Amino acid sequence: MRKLQNVLMALSALCFAIPAFAQGGSSVTDMAPIGAGIGMGIAAGLCGLGQGRAVGSATEALARNPGTRAGIQLLLVLGLAFIESLTLFTLVVVFAKIH
User: Domain spanning 31-99: which superfamily?
Assistant: First the structure.
């Protein structure tokens, strides 16, 4: 695993070093699309983890006390909507930054 990490680090260093040593054209490279893509991936992944934990906790709560189904379901849907809105806000920021 350590060897794979070293190889990937070397490859990433080479990918970012190529534009710096180029002879012609602009020496400044626009890294905003790469950063925006990484940010969107992180946001989507973490929101997915949050949604999974929320659904798991709601399922466990329903298993312990089935009589509170209506209240738990309402709060679950509201919480999932808020979690999903974080991903959508990130997508808006990505489009605003790349434009």
Answer: F1F0 ATP synthase subunit C (1.20.20.10)
